[in-house]
User: Which sequence fits this backbone?
């Protein structure tokens, strides 16, 4: 499909720079591709009223790490070139794939030093070597530290990698380490939050428990590739960056039981949806899954297992707006986004939510 079909104009004022407080006070636009009303305005706390006993919410329990690293490139006698790297996929105990800026100044063999402020391991020394240079500013970085020691150093010197549309307007701060993390985050490895999950609180969980709604957890380590624009003119020419995910056997079995008894699988966030759809067979059976997924969902895709989706509002021309257009219909989603803009919904990672019913 033509990528320009997924374009729309968004006022700068619609972009949320901080989350709602409390988290569950955000607005929620309910979108029904069939039936009346097609669009209705609610709040996140109203979520239980749209679910039935026996439905199951699926959350992504990945935990965001401070994956934004600022460093200095060393090459021969030149030690004055600043570089910025955003880690996006761990491929070994001591190796990460990262997006670099400015990537044109890097080449294999370059040494990078990070965080020499006396706060990281080994008196502030976190260093690595560029091993490979790929396309679109991607590099492979081998650190001198490995495993837990590397994790500790990254925690000490890194910054929360706020999305570009927020980072261009303000610097990250201590509050972001709390705000940009779900309350159920557990498995470290993401460099971007599963943002639909940011709306959930203990109060909302209690209301869902009272409503008889199950909750289950899967893990997809969201990469920085989620923010990359689609630069091709046709969706067939776009290549998705892979992300590492995991669905354990017990969770797969429980979700299959939900579907078998007529309950609905409701994914919280596009990340959990992409993982569940990667793990599902053609007949809708969810299998245990572990490994990378580069699933790219556009209109015409036949959803295998997911019945409803709670998600935030996404960027124009993005793979995520393409996904929600596939789920609820492109005309429905264009109308939903026009309504959201006109009525003051807050967009993107710290913004409001939408609850989508799948198009028949």
Assistant:
């Amino acid at each position: 499909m033509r990528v320009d079909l997924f374009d729309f104009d968004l006022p700068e004022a619609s972009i949320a720079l901080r989350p709602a407080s409390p988290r569950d006070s955000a607005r929620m636009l309910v979108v029904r591709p069939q039936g009346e009303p097609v669009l209705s305005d609610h709040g996140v706390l109203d979520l239980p009223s749209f679910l039935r006993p026996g439905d199951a919410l699926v959350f992504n329990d990945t935990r965001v790490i401070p994956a934004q690293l600022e460093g200095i490139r060393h090459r021969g006698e030149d030690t004055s070139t600043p570089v910025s790297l955003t880690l996006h996929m761990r491929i070994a105990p001591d190796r990460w794939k990262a997006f670099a800026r400015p990537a044109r100044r890097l080449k294999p063999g370059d040494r990078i030093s990070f965080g020499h402020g006396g706060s990281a391991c080994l008196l502030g020394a976190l260093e690595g070597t560029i091993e490979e240079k790929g396309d679109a500013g991607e590099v492979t970085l081998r650190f001198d530290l490995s495993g837990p020691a590397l994790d500790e150093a990254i925690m000490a010197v890194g910054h929360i990698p706020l999305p570009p549309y927020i980072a261009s307007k303000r610097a990250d701060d201590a509050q972001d380490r709390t705000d940009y993390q779900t309350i159920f985050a557990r498995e470290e490895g993401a460099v971007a939050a599963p943002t639909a999950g940011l709306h959930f609180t203990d109060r909302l969980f209690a209301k869902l428990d009272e409503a008889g709604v199950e909750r289950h957890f899967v893990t997809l380590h969201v990469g920085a590739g989620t923010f990359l624009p689609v630069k091709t003119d046709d969706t067939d020419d776009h290549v998705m960056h892979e992300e590492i995910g995991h669905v354990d056997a017990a969770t797969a079995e429980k979700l299959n039981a939900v579907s078998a008894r007529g309950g609905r699988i409701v994914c919280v966030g596009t990340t959990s949806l992409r993982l569940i759809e990667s793990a599902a067979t053609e007949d809708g059976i969810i299998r245990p899954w572990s490994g990378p997924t580069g699933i790219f969902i556009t209109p015409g895709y036949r959803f295998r297992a997911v019945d409803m989706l709670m998600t935030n509002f996404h960027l124009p021309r993005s793979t995520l707006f393409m996904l929600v257009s596939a789920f609820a219909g492109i005309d429905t989603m264009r109308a939903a986004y026009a309504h959201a803009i006109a009525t003051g919904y807050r967009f993107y990672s710290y913004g409001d939510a939408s609850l989508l019913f799948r198009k028949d």
The longest helix spans residues 330-342.
